[in-house]
Amino acid sequence: MAELSRFIQFNNEQIDPRQMLHYEQLARALSNAPFLSMSERQLIEMRPQEQQIAMSVFWRHRDKETMHLGRLSDIYILTLGFWCHFDVNAYLEFEEEIRIHPLKNFLKQLVLLIEEFRLMDLVVQKRPGIAKAIQIRKKTYIESYKHRFEANAQKGLLADACINYLYLAANEGMINLPENDVSNKFEPLLYPFQQIYDVKKTQQSIDLVYRIIPIIEEQISRDLVLDYYALMDSIPEAVKSHEHRGVKGQECGNQNDAKETIEQLFRTWHRETKEETGVHLRFELQRGNAGKAFSVESEEGQEGNQISEEGTGGVSNANATPQKANHNVNKKIPRKKQQARQQYGKENENVVFEEKRIETTKTLQTLTNLATWRAEQAPSVKALTTEFRKRLTQKEIAKRDHLTKGRLDSSKLINLLLEERCKPFYKKNAPAKPLDAVFGLLIDCSASMIDKMDETKKAVLLFHDVLRQMDIPHEIVGFYEDAYEATPEIQPNTFEWLHKFEDNQKDNGASIMSLTAHEDNRDGFAIRWMTKRLKQRNEKHRFLLLFSDGEPSAFEYAQNGVKDTLDAVLEAEKQNIEVLHLFLNNEMPGEEQLQLFHMIYGSHTVTADSVEKFTDITIRLLRKMISLVIQSQ
């Protein structure tokens, strides 16, 4: 859908999806975890339930080098440090012991501060090449914490000022610490805090905090107001969720088999979320006995099975019939619909989609418009097809004579006597080859296209008529998401065929005229769907075109949809499928929107500053693509 004209600039910030994908690939490589995803949050974070780590927005709005190296330092600290060198059990035990302490947030943040300091040195020792990024990190945070210390000291926020003070003591040195009345209160902490340089593991960081707790309690009575670390916010919940799984009592697992590192916790969550998919596992078993079931009619649950009924009954009614469940989670998905699951991307796991032919409406008005538009476009179609056929003719190998072998040219037999090295042979022209290309056209049928649908139909009709006359296989599909029926569990999507590969040269002009606007557009999912279709084709040149009037917009698919669409584009390009984007709007797109399209589609995006020019752009694009195919033959 077209971008809304939002007046708050900082609310309209867009991530660079290509750069974010680069960071994600780096994180996966360093952690050796191909399932890991990357996001950007207020503070760096580890989220096992979502299989995600997060960089901090702290690095935004800085110079290009600082922003890039700062984000890299976040990734290094998370994947090379906390990923495999942080003791989860020790931290959770510490968290439980200070659960009722009045300064519990301060103490937890202090442990993470010490751990960050320890792990920064550790990752530099492991990979000296990242030292510059870590130095930039220290320098930038030192400047930030100096300002924070002054502000917190003036406001009387002693716990926050103490965190700032200890960070400066660890990273800048205890000689350069700020001096005022507040810092004088924290000086007694410096002597025991010097042991931070000797810390080698998480338990030692915790022991150091225990040693300075009595001194802290003398100076501070109020807990932290702000958060400085969110690293472990999701870890306790992830661990508790694992403890809950499985049957209770005598069949429960070994309670001592706890996860020692964040890496183990992430990988266990990944294995369970990968294997335990499908709603047949939505009802969790709480108690049970070992052994096989007595029923001989039972069958193993399958991932694709859907829960549509719940049986009710008892010993007094052996013929009890199943009753329909009323809640939305157990709504039966019609058989003609398919579930996307993981093969269409993580952001589309809950998508349920339907593939169908568009319902053709042959009213007098539509047939009249069809005839009128075809009459208007006839010169362009004829010019294009004539041009392409001429180019194909020129590509034929011209008659070659003066050859040493081939067919004898009787008109040049006299040359046998006149020339010392006569070449009286020739070869016939080579037959023209059919164009080895296939096209897949996706049309955004979101609600924002309603005022541009006529011009879109004209462009699609031109596209269809040229390729049909050139005998080039193509498929035209409209896609949309039902915004009114979308829920966190199910997001219904529909693909409507206007023309299928199997239709060959069939005239589907009436189907194109039946195109209508609906609700939302899930572009990344649609690109993956068409990529799957094109992968089954044997043609050498495969093109995927997307007609759209804006960025992706669907249920829980805002900022994540941009990155998902980029991922889909890159996946298609890896399959040697050329992806091209045509932006249709009533006015020239803004600089931010142009930048966004270039980030997603690279240089393969074309924009029209008015709907009237959309057909002309389609002609130029078709001419360019088919010309490339002809030249390569």
Overview of the molecule:
This protein is of the alpha/beta class and 633 residues long. It has an eight-stranded mixed sheet with strand order 6-7-13-12-11-14-15-16, sandwiched between helices. Strands 1-3-2 form a three-stranded mixed sheet, with helices on one face. α1 crosses α17, α2 packs across α4 and α5 packs antiparallel against α6.
Total number of helices: 19
Shape: elongated
Tell me roughly what share of residues is in helical segments. 40-55%
Q: What is the average of the pLDDT values? A: 82
Alpha-carbon distance between the two ends: 39 Å
Q: Beta-sheet strand percentage?
A: 5-15%
User: How would a crystallographer describe the biggest sheet?
Assistant: 8 strands, mixed
Give the number of DSSP strands. Answer: 16
**Spatial strand sequence of the major β-sheet:** 6-7-13-12-11-14-15-16
Estimated radius of gyration = 33 Å
Find the structural class using helix and strand composition. alpha/beta
| Unreliable sequence segments | 1-11, 244-257, 276-335
Write a compact overview of the structure shown.
This protein is 44% helix and 13% strand. By secondary structure, the protein is of the alpha/beta class.
